Amino acid sequence: MDIKGAVALVTGGASGLGEATVRRLHAGGASVVIVDKNAERGAQLSGELGERAVFADTDVTSAESVQAAVGLATEIGPLRIAVNCAGSGMVGRTINRDGSPHDLAVFEWVIKLNLIGTFNVASLAASAMSKGEPLAGGERGVIVNTASIAAFDGQIGQVAYSASKGGVVGMTLPMARDLGVVGIRVMTIAPGSFDTPIFGFAGDAMKSALTEIVPFPTRMGDPAEYGALVAHIVENQYLNGEVIRIDGAVRFPPK
Ligand SMILES: NC(=O)c1ccc[n+]([C@@H]2O[C@H](COP(=O)([O-])OP(=O)(O)OC[C@H]3O[C@@H](n4cnc5c(N)ncnc54)[C@H](O)[C@@H]3O)[C@@H](O)[C@H]2O)c1
Q1: Quick check: 110 and 166 in contact, CB under 8 A?
Q2: 125 Cβ partners below 8 Å, 6+ apart?
Q3: Is any atom of ligand 1 closer than 6 Å to the C-beta of 144?
Protein backbone atom coordinates (compact mmCIF):
# COMPACT_ATOMS: atom_id res chain seq x y z
CA MET A 1 0.00 0.00 0.00
CA ASP A 2 1.35 3.43 -0.94
CA ILE A 3 1.36 5.89 1.94
CA LYS A 4 1.29 8.81 -0.47
CA GLY A 5 -2.28 9.82 -1.17
CA ALA A 6 -3.82 7.39 1.36
CA VAL A 7 -6.22 8.42 4.12
CA ALA A 8 -4.99 7.29 7.54
CA LEU A 9 -6.57 7.35 10.98
CA VAL A 10 -4.27 7.22 14.01
CA THR A 11 -5.65 6.84 17.53
CA GLY A 12 -3.62 8.25 20.38
CA GLY A 13 -2.29 10.45 17.59
CA ALA A 14 -1.79 13.49 19.81
CA SER A 15 1.10 12.01 21.82
CA GLY A 16 4.01 9.58 21.87
CA LEU A 17 3.94 6.63 19.47
CA GLY A 18 0.72 7.83 17.83
CA GLU A 19 2.11 11.31 17.26
CA ALA A 20 5.28 9.87 15.72
CA THR A 21 3.08 7.74 13.44
CA VAL A 22 1.01 10.77 12.45
CA ARG A 23 4.19 12.67 11.60
CA ARG A 24 5.68 9.75 9.61
CA LEU A 25 2.54 9.04 7.58
CA HIS A 26 1.92 12.75 6.98
CA ALA A 27 5.53 13.24 5.83
CA GLY A 28 5.01 10.28 3.48
CA GLY A 29 2.10 12.08 1.81
CA ALA A 30 -0.93 10.61 3.59
CA SER A 31 -3.93 12.59 4.80
CA VAL A 32 -4.11 11.92 8.52
CA VAL A 33 -6.99 12.00 10.98
CA ILE A 34 -5.55 12.48 14.47
CA VAL A 35 -7.91 10.60 16.80
CA ASP A 36 -7.44 11.42 20.47
CA LYS A 37 -9.27 12.58 23.58
CA ASN A 38 -6.62 15.22 24.24
CA ALA A 39 -8.29 18.08 22.34
CA GLU A 40 -5.69 20.70 23.14
CA ARG A 41 -2.71 18.66 21.94
CA GLY A 42 -4.62 17.18 18.98
CA ALA A 43 -5.66 20.59 17.67
CA GLN A 44 -2.12 21.89 18.19
CA LEU A 45 -0.60 19.04 16.16
CA SER A 46 -3.12 19.27 13.32
CA GLY A 47 -2.52 23.05 13.23
CA GLU A 48 1.23 22.50 13.08
CA LEU A 49 0.99 19.95 10.25
CA GLY A 50 -1.54 22.07 8.36
CA GLU A 51 -2.77 20.66 5.08
CA ARG A 52 -3.72 16.95 5.10
CA ALA A 53 -4.10 16.80 8.90
CA VAL A 54 -7.33 16.99 10.86
CA PHE A 55 -8.09 16.36 14.52
CA ALA A 56 -11.08 14.33 15.71
CA ASP A 57 -11.84 14.67 19.42
CA THR A 58 -12.66 11.03 20.15
CA ASP A 59 -13.01 8.47 22.91
CA VAL A 60 -11.86 5.14 21.43
CA THR A 61 -14.05 3.18 23.86
CA SER A 62 -17.24 4.69 22.40
CA ALA A 63 -18.69 3.25 19.18
CA GLU A 64 -20.50 6.50 18.43
CA SER A 65 -17.41 8.63 18.94
CA VAL A 66 -15.19 6.39 16.78
CA GLN A 67 -17.84 6.16 14.06
CA ALA A 68 -17.78 9.97 13.85
CA ALA A 69 -13.98 9.94 13.44
CA VAL A 70 -14.19 7.24 10.76
CA GLY A 71 -16.87 9.35 9.02
CA LEU A 72 -14.51 12.34 9.05
CA ALA A 73 -11.81 10.18 7.44
CA THR A 74 -14.07 8.86 4.69
CA GLU A 75 -15.14 12.41 3.80
CA ILE A 76 -11.51 12.98 2.76
CA GLY A 77 -11.33 9.80 0.66
CA PRO A 78 -11.37 6.00 1.05
CA LEU A 79 -9.94 5.05 4.46
CA ARG A 80 -6.88 2.83 3.88
CA ILE A 81 -4.77 2.90 7.06
CA ALA A 82 -5.88 2.63 10.72
CA VAL A 83 -3.30 2.64 13.51
CA ASN A 84 -4.32 1.99 17.12
CA CYS A 85 -2.04 3.75 19.59
CA ALA A 86 -4.52 5.04 22.18
CA GLY A 87 -3.86 3.22 25.42
CA SER A 88 -2.63 3.42 28.95
CA GLY A 89 -1.92 1.31 32.01
CA MET A 90 -2.45 1.10 35.71
CA VAL A 91 -0.20 -0.77 38.13
CA GLY A 92 -1.78 -3.34 40.45
CA ARG A 93 -1.09 -6.87 41.70
CA THR A 94 -3.58 -9.72 41.64
CA ILE A 95 -3.61 -9.37 45.40
CA ASN A 96 -1.98 -6.51 47.26
CA ARG A 97 0.74 -7.00 49.87
CA ASP A 98 -1.95 -7.01 52.57
CA GLY A 99 -3.87 -9.78 50.76
CA SER A 100 -6.66 -7.52 49.51
CA PRO A 101 -7.73 -8.13 45.90
CA HIS A 102 -6.92 -6.08 42.80
CA ASP A 103 -9.47 -3.31 42.29
CA LEU A 104 -11.84 -4.83 39.71
CA ALA A 105 -12.86 -1.41 38.38
CA VAL A 106 -9.21 -0.68 37.56
CA PHE A 107 -8.83 -4.03 35.78
CA GLU A 108 -12.00 -3.33 33.76
CA TRP A 109 -10.84 0.20 32.87
CA VAL A 110 -7.53 -1.06 31.43
CA ILE A 111 -9.26 -3.82 29.42
CA LYS A 112 -11.85 -1.39 28.15
CA LEU A 113 -9.31 1.14 26.92
CA ASN A 114 -6.55 -1.09 25.54
CA LEU A 115 -8.46 -4.13 24.30
CA ILE A 116 -12.06 -3.07 23.67
CA GLY A 117 -10.98 0.36 22.40
CA THR A 118 -8.58 -1.27 19.94
CA PHE A 119 -11.23 -3.72 18.74
CA ASN A 120 -13.82 -0.94 18.42
CA VAL A 121 -11.56 1.15 16.18
CA ALA A 122 -10.35 -1.83 14.14
CA SER A 123 -13.87 -3.11 13.51
CA LEU A 124 -15.37 0.27 12.57
CA ALA A 125 -12.35 1.18 10.43
CA ALA A 126 -12.45 -2.22 8.69
CA SER A 127 -16.13 -1.78 7.93
CA ALA A 128 -15.40 1.53 6.20
CA MET A 129 -12.32 0.10 4.42
CA SER A 130 -14.34 -2.83 3.09
CA LYS A 131 -16.50 -0.40 1.12
CA GLY A 132 -13.51 1.11 -0.74
CA GLU A 133 -12.37 0.04 -4.19
CA PRO A 134 -9.52 -2.51 -4.08
CA LEU A 135 -6.02 -1.29 -4.92
CA ALA A 136 -3.18 -3.25 -6.56
CA GLY A 137 -3.26 -6.92 -5.59
CA GLY A 138 -6.80 -6.60 -4.20
CA GLU A 139 -5.69 -4.67 -1.12
CA ARG A 140 -8.26 -2.40 0.52
CA GLY A 141 -6.65 -1.44 3.78
CA VAL A 142 -4.23 -2.12 6.61
CA ILE A 143 -4.78 -2.03 10.36
CA VAL A 144 -1.88 -1.76 12.81
CA ASN A 145 -2.57 -2.41 16.49
CA THR A 146 -0.25 -1.68 19.41
CA ALA A 147 0.32 -4.32 22.06
CA SER A 148 3.42 -4.30 24.30
CA ILE A 149 6.15 -6.75 25.17
CA ALA A 150 4.24 -6.92 28.47
CA ALA A 151 1.83 -9.17 26.55
CA PHE A 152 4.62 -11.80 26.75
CA ASP A 153 6.87 -10.69 29.63
CA GLY A 154 4.35 -9.12 32.01
CA GLN A 155 5.96 -7.93 35.23
CA ILE A 156 4.71 -7.94 38.79
CA GLY A 157 1.97 -5.31 38.92
CA GLN A 158 1.15 -5.56 35.21
CA VAL A 159 -1.63 -8.15 35.35
CA ALA A 160 -4.33 -5.87 33.91
CA TYR A 161 -2.05 -4.24 31.34
CA SER A 162 -0.59 -7.58 30.21
CA ALA A 163 -4.07 -9.10 29.92
CA SER A 164 -5.22 -6.19 27.77
CA LYS A 165 -2.18 -6.37 25.51
CA GLY A 166 -2.32 -10.17 25.38
CA GLY A 167 -5.86 -9.70 24.06
CA VAL A 168 -4.56 -7.43 21.31
CA VAL A 169 -1.97 -10.08 20.39
CA GLY A 170 -4.67 -12.77 20.41
CA MET A 171 -6.94 -10.78 18.08
CA THR A 172 -4.27 -10.33 15.43
CA LEU A 173 -4.50 -13.62 13.54
CA PRO A 174 -8.29 -14.12 13.68
CA MET A 175 -8.84 -10.52 12.64
CA ALA A 176 -6.45 -10.92 9.70
CA ARG A 177 -8.31 -14.12 8.77
CA ASP A 178 -11.70 -12.39 9.09
CA LEU A 179 -10.61 -9.51 6.90
CA GLY A 180 -8.52 -11.33 4.28
CA VAL A 181 -11.63 -11.84 2.17
CA VAL A 182 -11.96 -8.06 1.72
CA GLY A 183 -8.23 -7.42 1.27
CA ILE A 184 -7.51 -5.84 4.66
CA ARG A 185 -4.30 -6.77 6.50
CA VAL A 186 -3.91 -6.71 10.29
CA MET A 187 -0.59 -6.43 12.09
CA THR A 188 0.35 -5.81 15.72
CA ILE A 189 3.46 -4.10 17.04
CA ALA A 190 4.70 -5.01 20.52
CA PRO A 191 6.99 -2.20 21.69
CA GLY A 192 9.54 -2.39 24.48
CA SER A 193 10.23 0.82 26.41
CA PHE A 194 9.82 3.94 24.30
CA ASP A 195 10.50 7.46 25.50
CA THR A 196 7.02 8.99 25.42
CA PRO A 197 4.81 10.97 27.81
CA ILE A 198 3.37 7.65 29.08
CA PHE A 199 6.49 7.61 31.31
CA GLY A 200 5.67 11.09 32.60
CA PHE A 201 5.26 9.63 36.08
CA ALA A 202 8.66 7.91 35.97
CA GLY A 203 11.76 9.45 37.44
CA ASP A 204 15.29 9.15 36.02
CA ALA A 205 15.95 6.09 38.21
CA MET A 206 13.05 4.18 36.68
CA LYS A 207 14.02 5.21 33.16
CA SER A 208 17.62 4.08 33.66
CA ALA A 209 16.40 0.77 35.14
CA LEU A 210 14.31 0.25 32.00
CA THR A 211 17.23 1.20 29.78
CA GLU A 212 20.13 -0.74 31.28
CA ILE A 213 18.47 -4.14 30.68
CA VAL A 214 18.24 -3.56 26.90
CA PRO A 215 21.01 -5.61 25.20
CA PHE A 216 21.42 -3.29 22.21
CA PRO A 217 20.93 -0.43 21.64
CA THR A 218 21.02 0.25 25.38
CA ARG A 219 18.55 3.09 25.43
CA MET A 220 14.82 3.65 25.23
CA GLY A 221 13.16 3.39 21.84
CA ASP A 222 12.67 6.55 19.83
CA PRO A 223 8.99 7.01 18.84
CA ALA A 224 10.20 7.74 15.29
CA GLU A 225 11.45 4.11 15.17
CA TYR A 226 7.91 2.96 15.94
CA GLY A 227 6.55 5.28 13.20
CA ALA A 228 9.08 3.86 10.74
CA LEU A 229 7.88 0.32 11.48
CA VAL A 230 4.26 1.33 10.90
CA ALA A 231 5.30 2.82 7.55
CA HIS A 232 7.09 -0.39 6.59
CA ILE A 233 4.09 -2.51 7.54
CA VAL A 234 1.84 -0.31 5.40
CA GLU A 235 4.17 -0.63 2.42
CA ASN A 236 4.94 -4.37 2.72
CA GLN A 237 1.89 -6.25 1.49
CA TYR A 238 3.10 -9.68 2.59
CA LEU A 239 3.10 -8.75 6.27
CA ASN A 240 -0.19 -9.94 7.73
CA GLY A 241 -1.57 -11.61 10.85
CA GLU A 242 1.68 -11.32 12.85
CA VAL A 243 3.06 -9.55 15.92
CA ILE A 244 6.43 -7.79 15.67
CA ARG A 245 8.43 -6.97 18.80
CA ILE A 246 10.46 -3.74 18.60
CA ASP A 247 12.51 -3.78 21.78
CA GLY A 248 16.31 -3.93 21.33
CA ALA A 249 16.13 -7.63 22.35
CA VAL A 250 15.01 -6.85 25.91
CA ARG A 251 12.98 -9.39 27.89
CA PHE A 252 11.33 -7.91 30.95
CA PRO A 253 12.35 -9.60 34.21
CA PRO A 254 9.63 -10.36 36.81
CA LYS A 255 10.15 -6.91 38.37
N1 LIG B 1 5.80 4.07 25.44
C2 LIG B 1 6.08 2.80 25.64
O3 LIG B 1 7.15 2.42 26.13
C4 LIG B 1 5.09 1.73 25.26
C5 LIG B 1 5.50 0.40 25.33
C6 LIG B 1 4.62 -0.60 24.98
C7 LIG B 1 3.35 -0.29 24.56
N8 LIG B 1 2.97 1.00 24.51
C9 LIG B 1 1.60 1.28 24.07
O10 LIG B 1 1.63 2.18 22.99
C11 LIG B 1 0.45 2.98 23.00
C12 LIG B 1 0.86 4.44 22.94
O13 LIG B 1 1.60 4.74 24.10
P14 LIG B 1 2.43 6.09 24.26
O15 LIG B 1 3.65 5.74 24.97
O16 LIG B 1 2.50 6.79 22.95
O17 LIG B 1 1.46 6.86 25.29
P18 LIG B 1 1.03 8.40 25.38
O19 LIG B 1 0.46 8.55 26.74
O20 LIG B 1 2.15 9.29 24.96
O21 LIG B 1 -0.14 8.52 24.30
C22 LIG B 1 -1.37 7.87 24.44
C23 LIG B 1 -2.43 8.74 23.80
O24 LIG B 1 -3.67 8.02 23.88
C25 LIG B 1 -4.68 8.97 24.16
N26 LIG B 1 -5.84 8.30 24.75
C27 LIG B 1 -5.92 7.72 25.98
N28 LIG B 1 -7.16 7.25 26.20
C29 LIG B 1 -7.89 7.56 25.09
C30 LIG B 1 -9.24 7.35 24.72
N31 LIG B 1 -10.10 6.73 25.53
N32 LIG B 1 -9.64 7.79 23.52
C33 LIG B 1 -8.79 8.43 22.69
N34 LIG B 1 -7.50 8.66 22.99
C35 LIG B 1 -7.06 8.23 24.17
C36 LIG B 1 -4.03 9.97 25.11
O37 LIG B 1 -4.75 11.19 25.16
C38 LIG B 1 -2.65 10.09 24.51
O39 LIG B 1 -2.58 11.15 23.57
C40 LIG B 1 -0.33 2.56 24.26
O41 LIG B 1 -1.29 1.61 23.89
C42 LIG B 1 0.74 1.92 25.13
O43 LIG B 1 0.18 0.97 26.01
C44 LIG B 1 3.81 2.03 24.85
Answers
A1: no
A2: 9, 70, 79, 82, 141, 143
A3: no
**Residue owning the nearest CA to atom 17 of ligand 1:** 198
CA dist., res. 222 & res. 24, Å (int): 13
Query: Residue 61: helix, strand or coil by DSSP?
Result: coil
* DSSP state letter for 102: P
Residues 6+ apart with CB under 8 A from 174: none
Q: Kind and range of the H or E element at 41? A: helix 39-49
14 within ligand 1 shell (Cβ under 6 A): yes
Binned at pLDDT 50, 70 and 90, residue 77 comes out as very high
Return the ligand 1 atom nearest residue 220 CA. 3
- Among left, alpha and beta (phi > 0; psi -120 to 50; other), residue 81 is beta
- Amino acid letter, residue 121: V
Domains of the chain: 7-246 (3.40.50.720)
Q: What whole-number distance in Å separates Cα of residue 225 and Cα of residue 234?
A: 14
pLDDT tens for residues 143-158?
999 999 999 999 999 9
Alpha helices in 181-245 (DSSP H): 204-212, 223-235
Instruction: For residue 162, report the distance from its CA to the centre of ligand 1, in Å.
Output: 14
pTM of the full predicted structure?
Answer: 0.98
